[in-house]
Amino acid sequence: MAIEWDDPALDRPLEELLAGPWRPSGCEGIERTYRFSLGPVGETRLQGPEGEFLPLTKADPGSSLEMHLQLYVASQSRKAAFVHAGVVAIEGGALLIPGPSHSGKSSLVFALCQLGASYFSDEYAILDPQGLVHPHPRRLALRGSDGGQQRLSPFQPGWTVGSEAIPLRGVLLCPFVAEARWGPQPISRGQAVLRLLENTVAAQLAPEFCLACLSRAVVGAECHAAPRGAAEMAAQDILAYFSASLPPRDQGQ
């Protein structure tokens, strides 16, 4: 994929975007090109690979581009299944928090990382055919009380960022419910796989492949469905539970 722009005002936001999980490619062929241009009245526009104009957030054009790039990769990849989920790591295993956009994944991931969990992603869990979870260290998208969005780099003092694939330790279906207190409420791995499949981008395009990745990943994982209240309190309860209940596990198992 190629990204083109002429407006110097886009240098910083696009360079910040490309400093995340994206890497330069040595590939000579270009399959898709995204181009920023100025419209008739000076507005910034994002043109897609087919010449179509894509939705663009004026306040943060880099985030809009990132959304389109990620969605394309997530839908077309057949090397891994991409699940809408927040992911952190604790004691060598991944905790996966599936859910659609605006479901509170990022705030819970942020709270968990503030307490010492390693950051993997706040938007996609990447599960390969061996069932391992890969890091996708994109910038966190945190929403304030005014509804505005802040993008936060995970590469900051006091945080650790995942750099290699690890086994899945737990699947947490934890929708926000005001005043709720998170507590472990087990569900079957089959139930967890179905809920993960609901949040898998390519589930309809490659159902057998995605199902195989998810089924392999949950082998040996704890799966819970329980509401949670404030992210800070839920993070304390989640880490306390998994720190006590899950012994370290070798990645080769």
Question: What keyword list fits this structure?
Answer:
253 residues; alpha+beta; seven-stranded mixed sheet; four-stranded mixed sheet; 6 helices; 13 strands; 28% helix; disordered C terminus
SSE run: EHEEEHEEHEEEEEEHHEH
Count of DSSP H/I helices: 6
Quantity of strands, as a count: 13
Note the gap between the termini.
Answer: 36 Å
Largest sheet, strands/sense/barrel: 7 strands, mixed
Report strand %. Answer: 15-25%
Helicity, in percent?
25-40%
Sequence-ordered SSE layout with sheet pairings:
Blueprint: E1 2-4, H1 11-18, E2 33-38, E3 44-47, E4 53-54, H2 61-76, E5 81-90, E6 93-98, H3 105-114, E7 118-121, E8 124-127, E9 133-134, E10 140-143, E11 149-152, E12 168-173, H4 189-198, H5 207-218, E13 222-225, H6 231-245
Parallel strand pairs: 1-2, 6-12, 12-13
Antiparallel strand pairs: 2-3, 3-4, 5-6, 5-7, 5-8, 8-9, 10-11
Description:
The protein has 253 residues and is of the alpha+beta class. The two termini are 36 Å apart. Helix 3 packs across helix 6 (231-245) and helix 4 (189-198) crosses helix 5 (207-218). The protein is globular and about 60 Å long. It is built from 6 helices and 13 strands.
Write a brief caption for the model.
This protein is α+β, with helices and mostly antiparallel strands and 253 residues long. It contains 6 helices and 13 strands.
